[in-house]
Amino acid sequence: MARITLRQLLDHAAEHGYGVPAFNINNMEQVLAIISAARAVEAPVILQASRGARAYAHDLMLAKMVEAAEAIAPEIPICLHQDHGNDEATCLSAIQHGFTSVMMDGSLEADAKTPASYEYNLAITARVAAMAHMVGVSVEGELGVLGSLEHGQAEAEDGHGAEGALSREQLLTDPDQAEAFVRATGVDALAIAMGTSHGAYKFSRRPDGEILAMDVIRAINARMPGLHLVMHGSSSVPQELQDAFNRAGGRMPQTWGVPIEEIQAGIRHGVRKVNIDTDCRLAMAAELRRVGQQNLAEFDPRKFLAPAMAALEALCKRRFEEFGTAGRAPHIRTIGLAEMARRYRSGALGQRFPSPAARAA
Ligand code: G3H
Ligand code: 13P
Ligand code: ZN
Fold first, then answer.
1. Suppose 237 and one of 94, 135, 257, 276 were both cysteines; which one would form an S-S bond, judging by CB atoms 3.0 to 4.6 Å apart?
2. Is the CB of 83 under 6 A from ligand 1?
3. Contact partners, residue 10, CB within 8 Å, separation at least 6
4. What radius of gyration do the chain's Cα atoms show?
């Protein structure tokens, strides 16, 4: 069994200067394809499930699939992470099902739509961190609201995400506030807002610093070099996948995602977890459409799903290589939850950055 906590994995990534993709899972085919890719390049991996995924696949099915993945690939450290937990109950029930990490996304209220106040976010995130750490589970918080700097709109999609217009202050994480938030909540990793958003339609042109605020990452990293940063909405929406999807009869308007070079620059400045769902969906959907278009008589689901899995596996391998995750698995010995809990209790996993006074000295 090689289930790993987010904290241990990101500490290793920070020590060795790499990033780890967090791929969303909803079904067996995605789990198998991602695990095959991880094995092929010897990469540790974060499998993350949204609330939507948990409802779609059923908690027990997801838990058993990840257990099976561990048995199939015992040499691969696997972190099972709750993506965008909206309240304490979501995070705690994930832990009951074997998740070794939870995101408490207090940037939005429990309806996962209404931007929350800083005070609300801080209080709920601190509560979840205290409870999760008691049992050794890691916690990701979020400060700032995901949305577009191009048009100032939030990114409500699939029932998740803020709705309507957002101010620039809401769309960009403030480094001072980030430091106060991390110190007060004790989170292991922090998701930040910097102009990325979920889904395929992130940017209407190749993003520059105006609409993809990489300077936020650099500023937070300069203040807290030991803090693990998380980039959400980090699909690159590659042109070749858009073309493949459209060649097979899809209708995806031209769009731009987050360029790989920008993610790599982020990794040089403290980004350790990179969330990718849309690219995985697109890779699979392009193949599903291709098979459907090329063979109108086909009705065996495996004939659709096997090429879709192959496309997802190829994409995941590429991301492991691009983020420097490949080849790291053999060098990680996973630490169990009980030992992680003991380390939190003893203070060994406490603050990882100098106090403002020490920094000034
Ligand atoms: O949070 C965004 C991820 O892409 C998950 O999406 O809520 O449709 O499963 P979902
Ligand atoms: P993408 O939609 O860019 O893949 O982002 C996924 C994500 O951030 C999940 O939390
Ligand atoms: Zn996200």
1. 257
2. yes
3. 20, 188, 189, 228, 272, 273
4. 19
Q: How far apart are the first and last CA of the chain?
A: 45
State both tokens at 127.
């509560």
- Which protein residues have their CB within 5 A of the ion that is ligand 3? 232, 275
Nearest CA-CA partner of 324 in 44, 35, 1, 37: 44
- Domain 6-344 CATH superfamily: Aldolase class I (3.20.20.70)
pTM here is: 0.97
Does any ligand 1 atom lie closer than 6 A to the CB of residue 86?
Answer: no
- Smallest-distance ligand from the CA of 142: 3
Q: Residues 92-149: pLDDT tens digits?
A: 999 999 999 999 999 999 999 999 999 999 999 999 999 999 999 999 999 999 999 9
Between CA 142 and CA 155 the distance in angstroms is 15
> Measured from the CB, is residue 105 less than 6 Å from ligand 1?
no
